[in-house]
Automatic annotation (TrEMBL):
<keyword id="KW-0648">Protein biosynthesis</keyword>
<dbReference type="GO" id="GO:0016282">
    <property type="term" value="C:eukaryotic 43S preinitiation complex"/>
</dbReference>
<dbReference type="GO" id="GO:0003743">
    <property type="term" value="F:translation initiation factor activity"/>
</dbReference>
<feature type="domain" description="PCI">
    <location>
        <begin position="198"/>
        <end position="366"/>
    </location>
</feature>
<comment type="function">
    <text>Component of the eukaryotic translation initiation factor 3 (eIF-3) complex, which is involved in protein synthesis of a specialized repertoire of mRNAs and, together with other initiation factors, stimulates binding of mRNA and methionyl-tRNAi to the 40S ribosome. The eIF-3 complex specifically targets and initiates translation of a subset of mRNAs involved in cell proliferation.</text>
</comment>
<comment type="similarity">
    <text>Belongs to the eIF-3 subunit M family.</text>
</comment>
<dbReference type="GO" id="GO:0001732">
    <property type="term" value="P:formation of cytoplasmic translation initiation complex"/>
</dbReference>
<dbReference type="InterPro" id="IPR027528">
    <property type="entry name" value="eIF3m"/>
</dbReference>
<dbReference type="Pfam" id="PF18005">
    <property type="entry name" value="eIF3m_C_helix"/>
</dbReference>
<dbReference type="GO" id="GO:0033290">
    <property type="term" value="C:eukaryotic 48S preinitiation complex"/>
</dbReference>
<dbReference type="InterPro" id="IPR000717">
    <property type="entry name" value="PCI_dom"/>
</dbReference>
<dbReference type="InterPro" id="IPR040750">
    <property type="entry name" value="eIF3m_C_helix"/>
</dbReference>
<keyword id="KW-0396">Initiation factor</keyword>
<protein>
    <recommendedName>
        <fullName>Eukaryotic translation initiation factor 3 subunit M</fullName>
    </recommendedName>
</protein>
<feature type="region of interest" description="Disordered">
    <location>
        <begin position="410"/>
        <end position="434"/>
    </location>
</feature>
<comment type="similarity">
    <text>Belongs to the CSN7/EIF3M family. CSN7 subfamily.</text>
</comment>
<dbReference type="GO" id="GO:0071541">
    <property type="term" value="C:eukaryotic translation initiation factor 3 complex, eIF3m"/>
</dbReference>
Length: 434
């Protein structure tokens, strides 16, 4: 992974390095360990070779070394990275590294018993080294990245991964993995982000995961992810756009499987505060039973209602305080506070007029963008086009008048020196005398 140190240089023949690692593992495992004696018959012995060098059974050696390497997590902290680097180097010399790398990833996501404080950071560095040694288009990188994300989730170190996420889509494209594999990675990243309260990042990757289940929109997994994403969107105080959810087939499928959740989504998509109160009355304890924060929902719904009022007043560009007070069910003296909060949320822009007791709208956000909004856009474009046509006509007229004035100015001297010119009598006498 970019930003994490690459593999340290390891020198020596495979047989020599395998013997070194086996000896080290025997030392870690203690009396009775037979790693070295197990691999020795599988290694080439130049002294016994006749007519050519005996070939090493690398596959057999690596199976025994990798199986025993779970003991590396007990190695002294100062030796951990070097020992794992040696193991990774040996795996890279085998005929099929993909067979062994998942085991190494599993070991590295387990606790480092010899380093309770720095173990996660060391393991992350080793996994990063491993990620860097693999070719960019090799699918094995996917499995290593999964281990990295798992480790980050358990250690609460999401900021380490965050800068690399901009490369994720290009990596997935290079690896050419199946949708379910991409979904597993997206969900893992979402969980890692949620573990460190990065709610917006968590939601983004959960929606990415949902986009991979469109062919299985009604499956139990799709339903579970859909409800999880919907709940996250509702509880996020800064999330106001629900169009990204309503466009998903798996969310649409909730109309059949989870009608109440679907109704709640519709309320937040395009309805107002009174509709939310009606929903709560009709559905009893649904909000509390599903661990939703009612105060968060009410506040978000008031802000969305204010945005709707502003959009409905787009023609007049003014929104009376009295209408805000009634629609949001708040005291008149709190109107300005709610308008300011709505401006801070990015839903509207404008100025408050205490004298006129109204909000002057400069810009507003449409919560839904359908046929009605497209007609409004078309109408405004037509008005703009007509204005431009009028402006163009005025410009052309001014241009024509300017050209005529210039022609008249140029014609003046020609008239004085052309056929219409007649010298006076004194000038005629002077000409005749000459």
């Amino acid at each position: 992974m970019p930003g994490i140190p690459s593999l340290s240089l390891v020198e020596g023949a495979f047989e020599e390095l395998a013997t070194e690692l086996a000896t080290y593992l025997d030392g870690l495992k203690g009396e009775g360990s037979t790693v070295l004696s197990d691999i020795t018959p599988l290694l080439a012995d130049p002294e016994k070779a006749e007519g050519g060098r005996q070939e090493t059974d690398k596959d057999g050696v690596m199976k025994k070394l990798v199986t025993a390497s779970s003991a590396l997590n007990n190695a002294p902290e100062r030796e951990l990275q070097a020992a794992y680097n040696l193991l990774i180097h040996l795996i890279s010399q085998s005929e099929d590294p993909d067979t062994y790398l998942p085991h190494v990833c599993k070991y590295l996501t387990a606790p480092m018993t010899s380093s309770t404080h720095n173990g996660a950071g060391i393991a992350l560095g080793i996994l990063g080294t491993l990620f860097n040694t693999i070719q960019p288009d090799d699918e094995t990188r996917y499995h290593v990245l999964l281990a990295i994300v798992d480790l980050i989730r358990n250690s609460g170190n999401f900021e380490t991964l965050q800068p690399q996420l901009k490369n994720l889509d290009s990596w997935i494209e290079q690896w050419e993995i199946e949708p379910q594999e991409a979904r597993k990675l997206y969900v893992a990243i979402s969980s890692a982000a949620a573990a460190t309260n990065e709610s917006q990042e968590s939601y983004i990757f959960l929606v990415k995961a949902l986009r991979t289940v469109q062919d299985e929109a009604s499956s139990p997994e799709a339903r579970d992810l859909s409800l999880r994403a919907l709940k996250m969107a509702l509880q996020n105080e800064k999330h106001f756009d629900f169009q990204d959810l309503t466009a998903l087939d798996s969310i649409q499928a909730l109309r059949k499987s989870d009608e109440t959740w679907s109704e709640l989504l519709e309320v937040f998509s395009d309805q107002i505060y009174d509709d939310l109160q009606e929903f709560k009355e009709v559905n009893g304890s649904f909000i509390t039973d599903n661990s939703l924060d009612e105060d968060v929902l009410d506040r978000k719904m008031r802000l969305l209602t204010l945005a709707t009022l502003a959009a409905q007043s787009a023609d007049t560009r003014t929104l009376p305080y009295s209408r805000v007070s009634k629609s949001l069910n708040i005291p008149s003296e709190d109107v300005e506070m709610w308008v300011i909060d709505c401006i801070r949320s990015g839903l509207v822009e404008g100025k408050l007029s205490q004298q006129k007791q109204e909000f002057l709208i400069h810009r507003c956000t449409h919560r839904t963008f359908g046929e009605k909004q497209w007609r409004e856009v078309a109408s405004r474009l037509e008005t703009w086009r007509s204005s431009l046509v009028n402006v163009l006509a005025v410009v052309r007229q001014q241009k024509e008048e300017f050209i005529k004035e210039k022609e008249a100015e140029l014609a003046g001297p020609e008239m004085r020196s052309g056929q219409g010119y007649r010298p006076d009598r004194r000038q005629r006498n002077f000409i005749e005398a000459e």
